[in-house]
Predict the structure.
Amino acid sequence: MCQELSVSLIVDAMSSFGALELNVRALGIDTVVASSNKCLERAPGVGFAIIREAMLRNCAAHAPSLSLDLCYQSRGFAHNNKWRFTPPTHVLAALHQALIEHESEGGVAGRGAHYRQNMDFMLEGMRKLGFRPLLPGSLQAPIIMTLHMPTDPAFNFDLFYNRLAALGFVIYPGKLTLANSFRIGCIGRLGEAEMSGALAAISATLSEMSVNLTHAEESRAA
Ligand SMILES: *Cc1c(COP(=O)(O)O)cnc(C)c1O
């Protein structure tokens, strides 16, 4: 559609970069932006853009920011391979190491498969506890799961969030979509041990609140 309308396509791939394949040629993408701190699993502090060269050249002198002028920074790299201003050296060193680990763990496919395992394990456990996913399986990406907010009046999301945090499991703090829902991230250096720990904490928290969602599921089915 962007090509038909002759407009640029800039993709914010923050939450998927490194774990989901993104074919910029096939999708006609002009620019992809992402950062160090999600699926690349490293310290926050550096973002990057992958930009069609012709587009970058056409952007000269358009940036409203001196230090974030990507066109001039790119020319600087070409000219003397240096940053124009002091870069976050420690963050970049960590990102460099993260890319080595990413590669050795199977690259995009390996990382995506790892997150998919986390997601499948967690979703299965959440279903058993009586939660219902917002999206059908075919639309649920292996990054962040979205679940319907339970309608049981004894379920209090703020309490749920705070109790889980106290037990060492921090989920997304609030709802994002129009639907009454909440989210749990499945990315990062987490595996089955952490996911089953989270499920145990969620189960314990539901019991504390005297919420039994499996009953609700049964009555809904009936
Ligand atoms: C996380 C995220 C952001 C924000 O990233 P920060 O590192 O918090 O600045 C922006 N866009 C998308 C799609 C994201 O998932």
